[in-house]
Structure formats: C-alpha cells, structure tokens
Amino acid sequence: MLKVENLAKYFSHIKAVDGIDFQVREGEVFGLLGPNGAGKSTTISLISTLCPPTRGEILYRDKSILKEPGALRQKLGIVPQDIALYPTLTGYQNLSFWGGLYGIRGRDLKQRIEEVAGIIGIHDRLKDKVDQYSGGMKRRLNIGAALLHRPELLIMDEPTVGIDPQSRKHILDTVLELNRQGMTILYTSHYMEEVEYLCSAICIMDQGKIIASGSRDELVDLIKGQSQVALKLEETGPDLVAQLEKMEGIESIKAGEDEIIISGENIEALLAPIVSRINETGHHILAMGLKKPNLEAVFLHLTGKTLRD
C-alpha cells in the first residue's frame, strides 16, 4: 500500500531523516519504534505531504505522492502527536468541522459522527466543550477526527503520550479493533510495549536511520540466545561496572544510579559468580530478576543505549 524509498529530510546540518526504506502492506499495523528525536514525526510529515523531502520517493498504491499528493490525501487519516482540536468548541462541533473538510455533509455527517463517537467511546461527552475534557478524552477525540472519512491508511503519531492508563488501554484496543475491521495503520511510538502489543511489522529508528526491521520475533532473533539479569542495588558505581566487565560471558552492562542490567548468552549460569563479584565489591543487592529478550533489549544491543536515553 505504501512504499518509502531512500527518503531523507535535512534541516541545515541536521539529518532528521537520513535515507530510509520501508513498506506498509495493506491490512497490517506497521510500527515505527524509536526514541524521541529518532525522526519518526518527520517521517510522518513527509508521508502526509506536509513538507517535501530532501530526496527520495514515497509511493501510495504505486503512485508517487510527491507528484500526485491528492492520490493519498483523501485516503489518509492523521492522528498527530499534538492535539489538533478547537478547545472552545464541543466534541460534536469539532467532529462536524473536520468531517466537513472532507466533504461530508448533512445526514451522512451526523450519522458518521455518531458512529465515530461510539468507536472512540465519548458518546456521552459530545455536547461538552473540549477544554472540559481530560487529556485522555482529548486524545480519543483526536483519533475520532481522523476516522470520519473512513481512511484507507491511518497514521497515528505517538497517540498515547501523557495520558492515564485507562485511556491508553482504550486507545490500544481501538487500534486493534480498527485493524480487525480492515484498516491499515502506521503507528509510531517510543513505548516498546505498545509496538510489541499492536504491530505485526516493525521498523526501529534511531538518529534518522532505520537500524532494524521485521516482525517482533525476527527482531528478537537478532539477539537469540542472549538473556538479561536486572539487579537492584543501593547504589552502583564505575568500580562495580569495571569488575563485572572482567567476567567472561558478559556481553554488555547498562548501569543506572541504583540498577544494573547485564546481558550475555546463558546469563543464568553466571548468576552465582555475578552475585559473588558484587558482594566482593561491597555493594548490596536489593532485588534481582531475569529479563526475557524484547524490543528494548534489541535496541540496547544495536545502539548501546535504551529507548529512553
């Protein structure tokens, strides 16, 4: 459905997007995963024709949207990272306004607003002004505005930032339901657990580049055989890290103020020596647990940093 080829966007000396390639197949939830500043939102701006790329091509159903932007615009729904609503209007008035921009009128518009309100779960709040909504309610209405014209492709840019757990779960469940109904979704996030939960295909971005892509299982296979142990301590320090780095079998160590994450193949067999080495340095372990490989571990393996660094 959507194909991105050698796409780049430079702002002076900043390479916000630096030559990326990926394709979104019809009927899937495609995830762009990466930390803040990775280039995800710039990529979305390029795909949605808000700004031209420095180089590269974007094809929607084999048509260049750089040459024919109209081929995509009527088929595209955008849920921006920032709330795009009028706070002094009611929820109904906001949906009516955005639906009108897509040429929906009269009875069709009223019916579609009712349908969308049911999808996003705010039917009983439609008459209230948006400035009376909670953050989670605003996020839901933001999604509703993108659904009114029944888009073929829905792009959601960090749609759960700064909301409560209940609203977040509702949004994630809504994404899955929309996909079950046949909608293709491009979902960006820096929350690893969201992308793991939602997406059948994933690209990991960092510093404007795609550093890995595939299904969740394919990405985790990049560190197949590697496991992690997380140790909670009263405090850590360079002396402790230096001692642990001398041990055979340890591939990487990530240290925070009071936590150390140690990765390596067959890390379970090293637990006893690790504990002994930590005790020898005079540090005290408060808690310890094994961690299964996940997308966070993949990102750490590829970049040497966590998603939230």
TrEMBL record:
<dbReference type="Pfam" id="PF00005">
    <property type="entry name" value="ABC_tran"/>
</dbReference>
<keyword id="KW-0067">ATP-binding</keyword>
<dbReference type="InterPro" id="IPR017871">
    <property type="entry name" value="ABC_transporter-like_CS"/>
</dbReference>
<dbReference type="GO" id="GO:0016887">
    <property type="term" value="F:ATP hydrolysis activity"/>
</dbReference>
<feature type="domain" description="ABC transporter">
    <location>
        <begin position="2"/>
        <end position="232"/>
    </location>
</feature>
<dbReference type="InterPro" id="IPR003439">
    <property type="entry name" value="ABC_transporter-like_ATP-bd"/>
</dbReference>
<dbReference type="InterPro" id="IPR027417">
    <property type="entry name" value="P-loop_NTPase"/>
</dbReference>
<dbReference type="InterPro" id="IPR003593">
    <property type="entry name" value="AAA+_ATPase"/>
</dbReference>
<protein>
    <submittedName>
        <fullName>Export ABC transporter ATP-binding protein</fullName>
    </submittedName>
</protein>
<keyword id="KW-0547">Nucleotide-binding</keyword>
<dbReference type="GO" id="GO:0005524">
    <property type="term" value="F:ATP binding"/>
</dbReference>
